[in-house]
Specification:
Elements: E1 10-11, H1 13-16, E2 22-29, H2 32-40, E3 46-53, E4 56-63, E5 66-71, H3 72-78, E6 81-87, H4 92-107, H5 114-120, H6 134-144, H7 157-162, E7 168-170
Helix pairs in contact: 4-6
C-alpha cells in the first residue's frame, strides 16, 4: 500500500477559491463515525467532488439522502476536522465532461450505500453504482474521464486520496470571512 502524501501547505479558502474548477475534497473528521472509517481505512473519512459552476463552488457528495449538490462554503463552515483540497489538472473540455457526469448523478436521485459502507469494514466490495458511498461517487466520475484508472471495487476515502494529487489543507474557515 502506498503511503498517503503530505499536504502542500495550509491555505485560506479565499486564496484557493479563484483557482478551483474541478477538485476533490478529502474530509478527515474526528467524530465517532469518522474515526471508525479511518480505523478500517486510514487517510480520510469522507470524499466530495468540487465543481466551479458559473462562479459558484459546489460539492457533489454521497450523503445520507443520496448524491446531492451542496454549497462548498456552507459545508466548510459547518465542518469540524481537516479539509484537504486535491486540485484536478485537466483541460476545459475534460472539466466540462466531469461536471456534466457529476450533475447527472445528482439528477438521477440515487440513494446512499449504507450496506456498502458497512461491508467495507470486513471485505472488498464490487463497484456497482446503484447506491454509492462518497468515495465511490467521486472515483466513478474521475474514472469515467480518465483522471484515475477504472476501479473494480469500492475505494475508501483514504484509498481514493492515494490516487489523487498532493492536497492543500484548508485553513480553519468561517463563512463570515467571505
Amino acid at each position: 500500500m502506498t503511503p498517503i502524501q503530505c499536504v502542500r501547505g495550509i491555505v485560506p479558502y479565499a486564496t484557493l477559491r479563484p483557482s478551483l474548477d474541478v477538485f476533490v475534497v478529502t474530509w478527515v473528521g474526528d467524530n465517532a463515525l469518522s474515526r471508525a472509517i479511518r480505523h478500517f481505512a486510514p487517510g480520510g473519512s469522507h470524499s466530495s467532488l468540487g465543481l466551479n459552476l458559473y462562479g459558484s463552488i459546489l460539492l457533489v457528495e454521497a450523503m445520507e439522502t443520496g448524491v446531492v449538490l451542496n454549497r462548498a462554503s456552507k459545508r466548510f463552515d459547518d465542518y469540524d476536522g481537516d479539509i484537504l483540497i486535491h486540485p484536478i489538472a485537466c483541460d476545459q473540455a475534460k472539466a466540462d465532461g466531469i461536471k456534466a457526469t457529476a450533475l447527472k448523478l445528482v439528477s438521477a436521485h440515487v440513494g446512499y450505500g449504507y450496506r456498502t459502507l458497512l461491508a467495507l469494514a470486513w471485505r472488498k466490495v464490487r463497484n456497482v453504482m446503484r447506491t454509492p458511498i462518497c468515495s465511490q461517487t467521486v472515483a466513478y466520475v474521475l474514472a469515467e474521464h480518465g483522471i484515475i484508472p477504472p476501479q473494480s471495487r469500492v475505494l475508501s476515502p483514504g484509498e481514493l486520496r492515494r490516487l489523487l494529487p498532493t492536497p492543500w489543507q484548508l485553513a480553519p474557515y468561517s463563512a463570515e470571512a467571505d
